[in-house]
Design brief:
There is one protein chain. By secondary structure, the chain is α/β, with parallel strands linked by helices. It has 2 domains: 3-121, 3-Layer(aba) Sandwich (Rossmann fold), CATH 3.40.50; 126-223, Winged helix-like DNA-binding domain superfamily/Winged helix DNA-binding domain (Arc Repressor Mutant, subunit A, Orthogonal Bundle), CATH 1.10.10. 40% of the residues lie in helices and 21% in strands. The chain has 8 helices and 11 strands. It has helices at residues 11-23, 34-43, 60-68, 84-92, 105-121, 154-165, 173-181, 191-202, and strands spanning 3-7, 27-31, 48-51, 74-79, 97-100, 126-129, 134-137, 142-145, 148-151, 213-216, 220-223.
């Protein structure tokens, strides 16, 4: 699931974009200020940032600069600033696209879809770990352990793929719920333990001497498999 952060202080516009993105199946995070946007961005795995420039407190331009220090996330500026110099400056500091208000939600969604489609073409279809001992298909929920195909449930696959896509990073149960299932999920945090148990069984990962998923007691889980070149 792709995560979209909307930073827009106009509540109606924020709600409208959130509604359209949610209807397309995206997981939406919304903020009414740059400060709130940065807090969300620093705590969640965001794929696209859609931001106004004229925000209360910290400006949208300053927020973009701070994001660009450590991230190449796709950023779309959505603003009433129509001056060409404003547009050039926004692109110069790191924005990838610039849309002027009033805008079309259909145009915005098309830009989002085109970016995600292009990005996905550049992503490997198979993730391979530990010299081919574990293969994860990015097109379906089939994984391969050695030469044997193993089928995970859709929820198990989401959890495994998220962990494997962020190796050596510790995730709490709550974070896995948020990243894998979104805000509106009815999945409970302890169910994550069940998913992890089932995944380990299917990928033949020894809990006492793990090769892929390690329990960090008191914190959560992390993926320790080594990605093959």
């Amino acid at each position: 699931m792709n995560n979209i952060l909307i930073v827009e202080d106009n509540q109606k516009i924020n709600n409208l974009i959130s509604l359209y993105c949610g209807q397309e199946g995206y997981s939406v995070y919304s903020a009414l200020s740059a400060e709130e946007g940065l807090e969300i961005f620093n705590n969640y795995d965001i794929d696209i940032v859609i931001s106004d420039l004229m925000l209360p407190g910290l400006s949208g331009e300053e927020m973009i600069k701070r994001i660009r220090v450590n991230s190449d996330v796709h950023i779309i500026i959505l603003t009433a600033k129509t001056n060409i110099d404003d547009k050039l400056y926004g692109l110069k500091i790191g924005a990838d696209d610039y849309i002027v208000k009033p805008f079309s939600c259909d145009e915005l969604l098309l830009k989002i879809k085109n970016f995600l489609k292009k990005r996905n073409k550049n992503v490997k279809n198979i993730l391979s770990f530990n010299r081919g001992k574990l293969l994860i298909s990015l097109k379906n929920n089939i994984i391969k352990v050695g030469d044997t195909d193993m089928e995970l449930t859709s929820n198990e696959y989401r959890v495994l793929l998220h962990l494997a896509s962020n190796p050596f990073q510790i995730f709490t149960r709550d974070q896995l719920l948020e990243y894998c299932f979104g805000n509106g999920s009815d999945v409970f945090d302890r169910v994550i333990d069940v998913y992890i148990k089932n995944i380990r069984k299917k990928i033949k990962d020894d809990i006492k001497n793990p090769s892929f998923i390690k329990t960090i007691y008191g914190l959560g889980y992390k993926f320790i498999g080594n990605l093959d070149e």
